[in-house]
Amino acid sequence: MTTTTIRPTTRSSVFERIRPWWLWLVTALASPPAGYIAHQLFGRVDGVGAALLSGVLSGALIGLAQWALLRRRGASPGWIVATAVGFGVGLAAGAALVGYETSLGALVVMGAVCGVAIGLAQVASFAPLRRHALLWTLATAAMWATGWAVSAGGVGIKVEDQWPVFGISGALVVAILQSVLINRWVPAVDSNREVATVG
Question: Domain total for the chain?
Fold first, then answer.
């Protein structure tokens, strides 16, 4: 009689799959100054022009902070441009779609539209994410919607002032979720070298 041993998934292997890249949380610190600078220069996000310009500037600053870490995993400066363009187009489209309203529902929809545009642009700029293009785009949409939902809950910024990006509370939530996906889908260059050496 042949017996089959079923090995349960260990707790450590589950945690390995969802392990955050803790250093990535530093990127959350870019959102508040990015939003503040854009708000000071271009005013409230209450029209297509203001939304587009605020999104491009905010996206460039956030993208720069992300690229400063992600370049260690092979990203080019194109990540900055992609994040800026995606943010500008996404914010202009999303804010116009909801009539520049700042209710919870409006901000969630705006965030989702913005996240789709950012996700698509980032996938186009960074080869390792192309294998997960759909998932990264949908995840970015969900993360940006969540970021705005957290900020709309009264934590971080006064959303009625029509900021281009959520506050630090929303940014931290987004950064935590992003860090898990990046750590899983974009391995560290050093790890690749080790694997290549061992193989």
Answer: 1
